[in-house]
Specification:
- By secondary structure, the chain is α/β, with parallel strands linked by helices.
- The protein has one domain (about 5-210): Glutaredoxin, CATH 3.40.30.
- About 45% of the residues lie in helices and about 15% in strands.
- It has helices spanning about 15-25, 55-70, 90-100, 105-115, 125-135, 140-145, 150-165, 185-195, and strands at about 5-10, 30-40, 170, 170-175, 180, 205, 210.
- The chain has a five-stranded mixed β-sheet. A two-stranded antiparallel ribbon has the order 3-7.
- Helix 1 packs across helix 8, helix 3 (about 90-100) packs antiparallel against helix 4 (about 105-115) and helix 3 (about 90-100) packs across helix 6.
- The longest helix is centred in the first third of the chain and has 18 residues, at about 55-70.
- It is globular and about 45 Å long.
Length: about 220
């Protein structure tokens, strides 16, 4: 039995980026399908986050998020982009990438571009370049953004996340019939996956996450 895993995330959520590694480790060699699901923490016209000009959020990154990344052995930066970009264009691009069989690869590239390379993933030129780097047609991708070809598909994905799945913080994992809210370590993910593969019941768990009110804890 294949276990389906859906991960709701936003590209500017630090814990979503940090959730990638443990998940990749946990699913190795297992009969699972992973799908990353769009969720915008701060959709336009909501004021975007600006951690470099928000002392409490800057302290949170320095005192909590950065040490957590270090413990995981992950190179991570707080991007010097003030404010952080909106992610709707990046997610419209995700719909293009998914349609062309590179959805998960696209997500990985965008997380790395933002949190390791400090690239502006709200810029269409940057997004097209990144799409090209993973083997997508950069010109066709850029045209899709310019024409809004995937705008409706992205909005439908957001409506699903907000209204049907009831997501209020990310990352949130739907692993078969179980839900994990917040970042989870490899061992926890492996346990839940094993329970699902065996058809066993289990408890939901919660970890560090970023919520729609701009808090990451």
């Amino acid at each position: 039995m294949t276990v389906k895993i859906q991960v709701y995330s936003d590209y500017v959520c630090p814990f979503c980026f940090l959730a990638e590694g443990p998940l990749e480790q946990a699913v190795q060699g297992k009969d699972v399908e992973v799908e990353w699901m769009p969720f915008e923490l701060r959709p336009s016209p909501t004021e975007p986050l600006d951690p470099w000009n928000d002392p409490p959020k800057l302290r949170m990154f320095e005192q909590s998020i950065a040490p957590y990344a270090q413990r995981l052995g992950i190179d991570m930066k707080l991007p010097r982009l003030s404010p952080h970009p909106y992610t709707h264009l990046a997610f419209e691009g995700y719909q293009y990438a998914k349609e062309h069989g590179k959805g998960n690869e696209y997500n990985h590239r965008l997380f790395r571009a933002f949190f390791q390379e400090e690239q502006n993933i709200g810029d269409p030129d940057v997004l097209a370049k990144l799409a090209g780097e993973i083997g997508l047609d950069a010109a066709e991708y850029r045209e899709a953004l310019e024409t809004g070809k995937y705008k409706e598909a992205h909005q439908q994905a957001l409506n699903h996340a907000y209204r049907e799945a009831g997501i209020t913080a990310v990352p949130t994992f739907f692993i078969g019939n179980k839900v994990l809210r917040g970042i989870a370590n490899r061992e926890t993910l492996e346990q839940v996956i094993a329970e699902e593969l065996a058809g066993q019941a289990g408890k939901a768990a919660e970890g560090l996450s970023c919520s729609v009110d701009g808090e990451c804890d």
